[in-house]
Design goal:
CATH superfamily of the largest domain: MetI-like
CATH class of the largest domain: Mainly Alpha
Order of helices and strands: HHHHHHHHHHHHHHHHH
Oligomer: single chain
Largest sheet: none
Number of domains: 2
Shape: globular
Strand content: under 5%
CATH topology of the largest domain: MetI-like fold
CATH architecture of the largest domain: Orthogonal Bundle
Length: about 375
């Protein structure tokens, strides 16, 4: 009798095709028992009733380039409201012939964010690139030099304003939140009390109230003849609000550190500053990456609340288009477009946080 070869033995012990691959995954996740089978069939029936009409409305019967009259005669979506008003939605009241400047500023920002995704590029050179880039973006938006006409900040709007409030706000709120968390855990009573009062006070009021205070009430306390830019006031309110929430998340990470970490740092002669910078904070901040990113995503979406104080961000410019009698009745298409832009921003942040968690091996 001829002995079996390893290849024949491998074929005999290989699991059946119905238990591996896509067929095995479908059986295990979609048709595992009568309840899962019933739910799968109901979901498939629901999707078959919803997706085809939705696809037809969005793509087949839709109007992509046309007048409002053509849209009203069509049975599908009117994407013409986006194509015909795209520049106003994206740039607001920024001078039409100068809109290449906010476009260049946004492209510069996206380039810096793309470079920062790779942790191997994190260095002083990248920090200097961010500093130079932010200054260049501000100069491009403001103008008044090198032959560029000056544009008042009251005319800034649309997507550049949304990115300005979110990127600058989140960048400034994160280190402030870390300092507040350290202050709340401080052994100095005065510093601890001030941080506790600040955090609890800010977390106890909605962001809209801070925006109203910064926009309406705060100017009443300024000396006569002194004014502060409305965008700057809204930016400060967003920074203060976000920092309070980040502080509590970071404090949770600091409390999760064992006493042995502090004792190990003391045993090698590290002072408080070096202990926090080299030992405690790197570990604590890695632990709280998921909740921190959740707060940053919420803060990014909350920048749309500046519409309450009449700042023409992305949402306000879209509402201005919808207030035009010619384009009334097409709000679904406009808000779908805005939702897609916000989704891309939030998904990018969430995706990068997952990538960062994997690189730092938080789960180990």
């Amino acid at each position: 009798m001829q002995p079996e070869t390893p290849r024949n033995l491998d074929q005999e012990i290989r699991p059946p095709v119905t238990h591996i691959g896509i067929i095995g995954w479908i059986r295990e996740n979609l048709f595992d028992g009568w309840l899962n089978t019933l739910l799968t069939l109901l979901i498939v029936y629901f999707l078959s009733r919803v997706i085809p009409p939705l696809f037809r409305w969005m793509f087949i019967d839709s109007v992509w380039v046309g007048s409002p009259q053509e849209c009203r005669q069509a049975t599908g979506a009117c994407w013409s409201i986006i194509t015909a008003n795209l520049r106003f939605i994206l740039f607001g009241f920024y001078p039409y012939n100068q809109q290449w400047r906010p476009l260049a500023a946004m492209l510069m920002l996206f380039g810096l964010l793309s470079l920062s995704r790779d942790r191997n590029r994190w260095s002083k050179r990248l920090g200097y690139a961010w500093l130079f880039g932010l200054l260049a973006m501000g100069f491009l938006m403001k103008g008044g030099f090198f032959g560029l006409s000056e544009v008042e900040s009251s005319k800034w709007g649309g997507l550049p304003l949304t990115l300005l409030l979110s990127v600058f706000g989140l960048t400034a709120a994160y280190p402030l939140g870390i300092l507040l968390a350290l202050g709340r855990r401080s052994k100095m009573p005065m510093i601890k009390a001030l941080c506790v009062v600040y955090i609890e006070l800010i977390r106890g009021v909605p962001l809209i109230s801070l925006l109203f205070m910064g926009s309406i009430i705060f100017p009443l306390f300024l000396p006569e003849g002194i004014t502060i830019n409305k965008i700057l006031r809204a930016q400060v309110a967003i920074i203060l609000f976000t920092a309070a929430y980040i502080a509590e998340v970071v404090r949770g990470g600091l409390q999760g550190m064992s006493r042995g970490q502090y004792e190990a740092a003391e045993s090698i002669g590290l002072n408080y500053y070096l202990t926090m910078r080299l030992v405690i904070l790197p570990q604590a901040l890695k632990i709280v990456i998921p909740p921190t990113v959740s707060i940053l995503i919420s803060a990014f979406k909350d920048t749309s609340l500046v519409v309450i104080i009449a700042l023409f961000d992305l949402l306000k410019t879209t509402q201005s288009v919808l207030s035009n009698p010619e384009w009334m009745g097409f709000s679904k298409e406009a808000y779908i477009f805005i939702a897609l832009l916000y989704f891309l921003g939030c998904f990018s942040m969430a995706n990068y946080s997952r990538k960062l968690e994997k690189e730092l091996s938080i789960g180990r």
